[in-house]
Every structure is written in structure tokens, then in C-alpha cells.
Amino acid sequence: DRLYFAILKQKVKSTADRHCFCVDEELAYENFYADFGPLNLAMFYRFCCKLTKKLKSITLSRKKIIFYTSGDQKKQVNAAYLIGSYAVMNLNMTPEEVHSLLLSKNSTYIPFRDASFGTCMYNLNILDCLRAVNKALQYGWLDFSSFDVEEYEHYERAENGDLNWIIPGKFLAFSGPHPKSKIENGKSRARDFRIYLSSSRNTRDLFFPSGYPLHAPEAYIPYFRKHNVTTIIRLNKKMYDAKRFTETGFEHHDLFFVDGSTPNDSIVRKFLNICENAEGAIAVHCKGPIPGIFLFPVVAESIDSFLIFFFFFPAGLGRTGTLIGCYMMKHYRLTAAEAIAWIRICRPGSIIGPQQNFVEEKQNGLWADGDVFREKVLKERENGKMTRILSGVDDITINGCNKNKSPKKEELELYNDEEEQSGLTQGDKLRALKSRRQARSAS
């Protein structure tokens, strides 16, 4: 009877018998587009530390602790997610019990949505997030006793690799490497672009960030070795030579499908097979940073003008999250909503547009596949045969490892930036916003 959650119309002050606090401004979701949550793992950690400290404080021991939000509906649902997840994690409450309390007093919460630029196609509610947190606790993915919040916040930044662990020790999602590590100069690349104002026929210089980071494969190798990453899976077209990983002892696989789209059954099977047979952790990526110019028409006082934005596009969100979600459903029996929720808590913006519906459609089939897989493993254990289980896929190759095979011409041709620049989709644009706002917050 000490801890309360309240939705208020305005900020309130603490009194002699109650201590009130709010994190609406302190823990703010950094959106890509129309998305607004759930707050990431670091923010959840910081909230837990703050609340636990208050509950254990001697000076507050006789006071009621009231966590409140006075923000809009987006702030309200994030606050409810924070206090609800805390209750699941620290108060031995089930997601359903917490959800029931949050809905008392006729409270309602808007659902979370994806980070796409289009109409919302899939709703993610608070209960999905609470269940995801509960599953993460059960499987040991969420353990704040060993969680390094500074490391999480360091490596999620574009200049430090844009890395996030989805399942610690198993799946690492990251932005795709480039042929060469460098700081690309945004001003020099865009010096010929101007904002055209049709109303006055004047031009103004565009403002661009001073530069943005591109990372070569070698930049990731020390981190991969330290964290027992043995396998890299590339889901985008070739932008670097896979030998730069394979010649240093890593396995490397290419499973390309179009950005913003969903994988076919063959790609899903191959991905699962690779992950089921990997010796260590698997690092998965799609396309890395590519500069671009986007023009958005604006109509003001019957005069057509254009707003021009300069972006660069790290990725590792849509395609990467979709396939990792498939593995989580097969091997941990997460629901599609739980998988999407947990992946977004770890790596905001993941799984976009139709990919959400794809994951949901695959749920029951992957559950059945997982049951068969586990039964097979159990039988092999009973028979004393603990071997790596192969699913019969015979067309997976490890780039650079088959010395007797002559590479095809197309295998030698690395991906050119211009190939996909004209076809940029939602997944590309999201990471651009992340890098831009990080540069802004650091200045």
C-alpha cells in the first residue's frame, strides 16, 4: 500500500505524507517518425533504479510513493509500461494482474505503433509489453544485476557501431558495415543541393551535419571476438567483401531480401538453420549508412514549395528484427506480439509495416516447428547423440570458405551505394533520424 500510479492533469508537489515523482521529461522516447514507444531497455533500467532507491530510502519510509504522469496519451502509456514492467520484475506480479490494475478506474491507453512512415498496420498494447518483459525474465534475457547501462547507451549510438543485443549471448542486431571506415562529410556531398523556394525564386544553403560515421568490417571484429560472436548474417545487398570476416575466422552468410519487405519461406528456413547450428552468438545486419536527399512537398497559401531533408541511413531494424523474431517464436514460443515488443524494447524501431503482420502470420507454424525441433533434440539426448541438428538445407554456403569452388561473377561484384539509393524504403529512413538526433543531442 505504499506504491501508487496516477494519471494527473498537471504536475503535483510532494507533501508530508506522500512523495510524488514524474519522469515524463527525464525519460523521453526518441521517435523515428510516428512511433512513441515503448521506452528502451536503458530507460527502463534507469526508472527501476530510481524507484527502487525511493522505496528503500529511510527518509521516505513513512511516505506513500506516487509515480505519476501528467503528459499526453503517449506519455501515459509509456509511464504505465514502466510501472507495470517494474511490478512484473520486482513485485512478483503477473502481467495480467498488473494490466488489470492499470485498467482500473476506467483508465485506457493508446496502443504503441511501428516506426513506419505510413498508416499504422499493427497495434502493440501494454499487455504485450508486460508479457514480453515477463518472458525475458523467465529466459534470463533481462537481468539488471549484470546489465551495463553505460555500455548499452554507448554501443547503440551510430558512431559506436549501432549495436543492440536482443538475446544476450545469442543475437546481436547491428547496422551494416561499409567497405571503409570513415567520417563522411555531409557538407561536401551535398554542396550542390539548394532549397528552392518557388514563392521568391531565392535559394538558401542547406544545413547538414558535419559528418557521419561509416564502419568497415574490421571495426566490429574486436567487439565480436570479445562477445563470442562467431556468425554474421547479411540481409542486404553486398557492400563489403565477406572475406574480411571469413578470413579472420567468422562464418558469413548472405540471405538477401528487399528492404521493407518480408522474407520468403526459404529464407526463413535458412536463417533458422544457420542460427540453430551456430557455435556462438550471431550478429545480424541489413543495410548500413547511405547519404540521401529527400524532398517533401508542402502547400502553404496556395504556393507549392519543398522541404528538403538530408539523411543518412544506418539500418538493422526491419529485416533484422523480423528474422530474429521468427527464431524467438520457434525456440522460445513467444507470441508474435511478445517478440515484437521485446525486440523494440532492446532496439527501438524494429519490425516495420507489413513485417509485423508477417511475424503474426508465422506464429503458429513456427510454434509447431519448434515443438518438432525440441522433440527431436530430446530423442537425440535420450539416445546419447548430441549432434548439431541440420534441417536438410543443402544450398547454404559460407562465403570465402570453399576454396575449390570458383566464385561466380556476380559474387565478386560488391554492392554499389547507388544501387539502392533510388529505392530507399522505410527501414532505411528510420536509422537516419536516429543518427541525426544523436548528433544534435551530443552538440
Automatic annotation (TrEMBL):
Q: Main localization of the protein?
A: other
Domain Tyrosine-protein phosphatase per the UniProt entry, residue ranges: 198-371
CDD domains given in the database record: CDC14_C (cd14499), CDC14_N (cd17657)
Q: Which GO terms describe its molecular function?
A: protein serine/threonine phosphatase activity
- Outline the segment boundaries, as ranges, of region: Disordered: 409-443
Among PROSITE patterns, the record links this protein to: TYR_PHOSPHATASE_2 (PS50056), TYR_PHOSPHATASE_DUAL (PS50054)
Q: Where is the composition biased (Basic residues)?
A: 432-443
Name the PANTHER family on file: TYROSINE SPECIFIC PROTEIN PHOSPHATASE AND DUAL SPECIFICITY PROTEIN PHOSPHATASE
Please identify the protein, giving its name as recorded.
Answer: (spotted green pufferfish) hypothetical protein
